[in-house]
C-alpha cells in the first residue's frame, strides 16, 4: 500500500487544490476524494475526512490538516520537499492550524469554491465506499 492523501471531492476549492498537487507535486501517493475512497480500509471516518484532509501511510500515524499537507509535500521531489519539512516543524505547524481552520470554514468563498463546500457531508450525499 502506498500513501494516500484524502480530500473533500464535493468542495470545488479542495478539488482545485488537489488537482494542483496532482499536476505540480510529484509524489507516489494516491490523491483521492473521500467520496471515492474506501474509508474503512484507510482507517478513517466520515467525520475525520469531513473535518480536514488526511494523510494515511503504512507504518505512520494518520496526519490531518496542515500536517497531512506537509507529508504530501515531503513525499515529493526536492522542489517541494523543503516546504513540507518547514510546514511540519512545530512552530510553523502550530501557526498553520488556525490558518487551515479559517480557510476550511471559508472554503466556499475561496477561488473554485461552491455552495456545496458549506453543506454538512450528510447533505452532500457522500459515501464511505468506492464509487461503482
TrEMBL record:
GO molecular function: protein-disulfide reductase activity
Organism domain of life: Bacteria
Protein's UniProt name: DUF393 domain-containing protein
Amino acid at each position: 500500500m502506498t500513501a494516500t492523501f484524502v480530500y473533500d471531492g464535493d468542495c470545488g476549492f479542495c478539488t482545485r487544490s488537489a488537482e494542483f498537487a496532482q499536476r505540480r507535486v510529484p509524489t507516489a501517493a494516491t490523491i483521492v476524494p473521500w467520496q471515492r475512497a474506501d474509508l474503512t480500509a484507510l482507517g478513517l471516518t466520515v467525520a475525520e475526512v469531513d473535518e480536514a484532509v488526511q494523510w494515511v501511510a503504512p507504518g505512520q500515524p494518520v496526519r490531518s490538516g496542515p500536517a497531512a499537507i506537509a507529508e504530501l509535500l515531503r513525499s515529493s521531489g526536492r522542489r517541494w520537499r523543503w516546504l513540507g519539512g518547514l510546514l511540519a516543524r512545530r512552530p510553523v505547524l502550530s501557526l498553520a492550524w488556525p490558518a487551515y481552520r479559517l480557510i476550511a470554514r471559508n472554503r466556499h468563498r475561496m477561488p473554485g469554491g461552491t455552495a456545496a463546500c458549506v453543506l454538512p457531508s450528510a447533505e452532500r450525499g457522500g459515501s464511505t465506499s468506492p464509487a461503482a
